[in-house]
Amino acid sequence: TLGIATGVATLIVTLFAWLAVRIARKGSESRVWINARRFGMLASIVLITITGHYGGELTHGRGFLFEYGPAFLQEKKDVEPVEVTAETTVFEAAIYPVIDSYCVYCHDDETTKGELRMDTPDFMLAGGSTGPLFVAGDTENSLMLRRIHLPLEDEEHMPPKEKRQPGEEDVTALAWWIESGASFDMKLSSPDVPDFVRELVQA
Fold first, then answer.
1. Given its phi and psi angles, is residue 80 left (phi above 0), alpha (psi -120 to 50 degrees) or beta?
2. CB atoms within 10 A of CB 94
3. Which of 18, 100, 170, 175 can pair with 166 through a Cys bridge, CB separation 3.0 to 4.6 Å?
């Protein structure tokens, strides 16, 4: 990944800067080594800053730096309205947008916390290092809901307390989806879909 690449680059440039400093201190007056020392130190500072940022994203998820900053600094996530057709499923229209907003930034191909990815149905079904993400038809034994319902101060509460938290209507919709069988194929037009779930769909 880019974070690993910048980390390796930081190591190489830092070693180069150290070598340039050592040679310059031994009395070398060559402009080449003096300029190399200056360049190496400046490049090291820049690379350490970039690498630190990517390290923070690996630990806290993408966008952590600006998520709670002033409004003009916050990263705006473009949410594409769901075009509802006769084939639109409940998952893609009402459930996945909740998961995408509150879970995917820590569970995607770049930041796979707990060896769990939630950016596609197949990865969700695969679960993570602590087991299945959910048990269809069983809300009490579904890890996702158990973590959501833990006290905010609990270190296992998800999303982490410093992250945005889903609203009550979001959690209720997730619970209904799991309890009703966690179908990825049920159509939004099905009479079994309650109104409070339809209301989550962006017009």
1. beta
2. 25
3. 170
Buried-state track 122-161, b at ≥16 Cβ within 10 A, e below 16 = ebbeebbeeeebbbeeebeebbbbeebeeeeeeeebbbee
What's the pLDDT tens digit per position in 39-85?
A: 777 888 887 877 776 666 655 556 555 555 554 444 445 556 677 88
Predicted pLDDT of residue 113: 87
- Phi (first) and psi of residue 135, to 5 degrees: -120, 110
Name the residue with tokens 């350490």: 48
- Reference 64, options 75, 49, 50; nearest CA is 75
Residues in the chain, pLDDT under 50: 71-76, 203
Could you give the count of Cα atoms lying within 13 Å of 185 in the half-sphere of its Cβ? 1
Q: Which of 68, 79, 60 is nearest to 164 (CA)?
A: 68
Give the largest Cα separation in the chain, rounded. 84
Rounded to whole angstroms, how far apart are CA atoms 184 and 87? 12
- CA 85, 89, 94, 98 torsion: positive or negative? negative
Please say whether the beta carbons of 117 and 99 come within 8 A: no
